[in-house]
Amino acid sequence: MKNQNCYIEFEIDDYEKFNHLKKNFELLKIAKNNQEQKGEKFWLDNFPKYVIEKFYFSDTDLKPDFKTAELEEFTWYFFGLIELLERDYEIEYVSCEEIEFRKGRLEYQPYSYPYGGITGLVIFVDSFGCKPIKIDDGISLYEINFLDNGDFSITDLEDIEKQNSSNKLFNSNELLWKFVKRFKR
To answer: Which residue, of 12, 29, 33, 153, is most buried by count of CB atoms within 10 Å of its CB?
Structure first.
């Protein structure tokens, strides 16, 4: 049977950063899959400085002792991302590994749909300097393109019109039909 795990494929530009991604993925996998949530200090102690600097923190948060990002339109809240990855996603983390030279894959298995969307996973991978390029979210296969403003768009590769999310919202009925067809294979 074909592998039914969902995944994000990404480019690896720096193997040290990729190893940081794998380490933090494994920590999230243990916390999420075993329902053993860690505290704020744990995540601040384990995420590298170059990653934490990209996120913002509220005035009441436990904060690192270095400057972090200001709140802007596409800046993520660090503990919000952690909460999504560690607790709120309805997924089981499977693996994060190199699949070919300079290309990696983070695999996960949803418990249900919608499981929380792809955005947090894309931001997580990207924050380690590994650029997400493709995602299979369990419904379709998408290409990821980062925009100059810090956001990203996705293009449905299985759509004959190659519908791009930055131009038009996806048709939810069509996405549901793709989901049903996928699991009938």
So the answer is: 12
